[in-house]
Amino acid sequence: MKVSFTKRAIALILGVLSVFNLTPFTLGQVTGWLTGTGLSEVAAEEKAEMILDVYMNQDLIFLSSDAEDTARDLLSQYMIQIFSGNGDAQVAVDALEELPIYEDGNVQSEHSEEYQVDDESTMRTKKTLLKLIGGSGLSDKTKKSLSGVLNGVNDLNIYFLTTDYANVYRFAGSYITDDGEVVYAKSGLYYDKESGIIFNLDRKGALKTGFDCSVKNLSMTNPVDPWQRKFGFNIFFDFLGNLILTNIDTKRVRFEYNGQKKMAQFWKGNYTRISNGGEIGFYNRQKNNPLQYDCFTDDELLDMSIEIYHGDEMLYSRGPVEHWWITGYTPGPLIDKDDITLVGTIGFKEQGMCDAFVEAAKKEFGKSAEISVDGMTAKIIWK
User: Fold this and answer.
1) Under a CB-based contact definition with an 8 Å cutoff, are residues 222 and 243 in contact?
2) Does the chain have fewer CB atoms within 10 Å around its N or its C terminus?
3) DSSP strands (E only) in the chain
4) How far, in Å, CA of 139 to CA of 45, rounded?
5) Edge-to-edge strand order for the sheet containing 369-374?
6) Has residue 242 got a pLDDT over 70?
7) What's the CA gap between 356 and 230, in Å, rounded?
8) Vertex 223 angle, CA 219 and 227, to 5°
9) Pairing state of beta strands 292-295 and 233-234?
């Protein structure tokens, strides 16, 4: 299926904006326009393949056959999960397991003697864009990245590099430019085979987005130090979120310990137009601003876990891990927030804080949750 670069670029922008409710269109409407079909009548598996056929048949980056197989297996399952909730996480995990692993500095990635290159019209367009980028006010790093893509990414191979951490591997690749030069590139993305999470080492999320990708859950979660941590929490965040991005229930458990006013907040419901999930966060109230809270510091991190259910079906599970804001967002058809159950555990470091939290939580949740305590670990089942 041949689609013009301009149409594809417009669709990509509209598709991303529609996910965040920033356009009057749904993701299905945008992709339907892109493929020229009524996607609402197409099965999720076929819909995913149609979209990948369009976007992977592009004019800037040409994947090797092995890399294309990996990308298709991984991305198709996420798309199927979004459209139907029936994505197969094992297929996505297996796709990553098949990537070759090299010692850093000893890469043996091979390239085809013949590889696909752009047509003359696209080459002229790329040269024009390179001139515009060179004379723009963009940062040198951004210029270098954009120029690297426009100089040609042909026969792209994707592989892992070993790291100093057990079962953790770095995404990397090699490709041929339009001029025939072989380029080896390391990404900032890492994959933990044990947990199945794609992340950045700086704890700021994959590609510094503020969220990590959980392949084993076909879901999104968050690292310890995302960009959101700088802003703490304010009640207006929930107000604006429900206007634009979310449809959620929330409970705020305010308590005091050692003279510090604290708050634990719980959320469950729908996030954007394509996912269901929940969150548990811990905050300290600012002394001079009763509406503003600071996130728990690294010294205050708690052992937390979270599970999200729709009836007896588990949609998401994570932990226990040390965190201040543990989350899970699973793509799929939206579920009524009243039909979502959040199960969370919080392991406190001091008995006094545990007791203060549990007392306040029982008052806040009332009959909507079952709350139990085992030593310094509290468990909440919120239906």
Assistant:
1) no
2) N
3) 61-63, 101-102, 153-162, 168-176, 182-192, 197-199, 212-214, 219-221, 233-234, 246-257, 260-271, 275-285, 292-295, 302-310, 313-323, 325-331, 340-347, 369-374, 377-382
4) 40
5) 313-323, 302-310, 340-347, 377-382, 369-374
6) no
7) 26
8) 110
9) antiparallel
Judged on CB neighbours under 10 Å (0-12, 13-18, 19+), 32 is buried
CA distance 172 to 157: 9
What is the pTM (predicted TM-score) of this model? 0.85
Q: Which amino acid is at 42?
A: V
CB 213 within 8 A of CB 206: yes
Length reported for the chain: 383
Query: Given pLDDT bands bounded at 50, 70 and 90, which one contains residue 234?
Result: confident
Least confident piece of the model among 67-81, 200-214, 235-249: 235-249
Q: Computed over its alpha carbons, how large is the radius of gyration of the chain?
A: 23
